[in-house]
Each structure stands twice: as C-alpha cells, then as structure tokens.
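2024-03-11 09:14:02 INFO queue: dequeued item Pyridoxamine 5'-phosphate oxidase family protein, len=165
2024-03-11 09:14:02 INFO validating residues
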Amino acid sequence: MTYWKEFDTAAPRISTIFRRRHAAAGNLCMLATLRSDGFPRISPMEPRFFEDRLWLVGMPNTTKFADLARDPRLCLHTATVDTQVSDGDAKLWGTVHDVQDEGLQQRFAENLYEETGFDLRGKKFEPFYALEITGASAVEVGEGDMVVLIWKPGQPEHEVHKRPD
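2024-03-11 09:14:37 INFO prediction written
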C-alpha cells in the first residue's frame, strides 16, 4: 500500500507541488467520486495530513462519503483559479479505506483542535478514510513549456514536456 509517507519519498516533486497547492488553497481540494448511477461527482474536500497519511474526513452522511463507501476509487485535485497554472497543480488517484481506530481518531481530533481551533475532540468519526495512492500527476509551468510529472507505484517520477504550438 502506498500511503502519503511512501508516496512523498517515491514522488518528491509531485508531493511538493501537491502540498504547496493544498496549503495555498486553504487545504481545499476537489474530490471526484462515482455516484450510484455511475456518473462522476465533484465535491469540495479539505484533506488533512496526519501521522504520515492523508485523511479524508468530514461531515458524516454526505453523498461524497456514500459514494466512497460504495466504491472507494477517487481522484483528488488541488484547487486552483489560475488559468495559467503558474504555481502548478497536482492530482492523486487512489482508494480509501475506513480506519476505525479510536485512539488514532482522538489524536487526529486533538491535532485538528491545536491547528485550527475546530473542536471535534471526543467525537467518533464515521467514516475516517485513509487514502492509498495508486497514481499521481502534477504540472509545472516553465519558460516556454509545461512539464507534466507522472508517478505510478513501483516506478520513479517521470516528465513529459509539452510545448505550445
């Protein structure tokens, strides 16, 4: 399984771009899931880094979590409003699994409170999704070209250069 820590080591450039864009957008990303009728759904999501993993946690009983409970596949895209993508962007593909570990959830809630003041201490999180990353890509814009970085488990990051016509 490739969790954030392993991904960060295997794909450091994509990881750096993801973290930078995640922070720049106030932790906001766009989450793509599959609805029960098979069509895609895009929802806002604020994934959080905690204990070497990336977590998808939020309001229970939402359609995005119902989607993930039915089909754990997803794409997570950093949010951007810059049509020139001058600061880059990144996407992660993967699956989630629900981690019902009360101690871990309470450490997460303490950390959330310390970092944001949002108090969920003492609450049970259902679901509490850990992201397993199955692929990733990122874009960097350079002088005269765009570099697309691609990563898959077991392979190093590699570059594809795109030049405007």
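2024-03-11 09:14:37 INFO annotate: The two ends are 40 Å apart (CA to CA).
2024-03-11 09:14:38 INFO item closed
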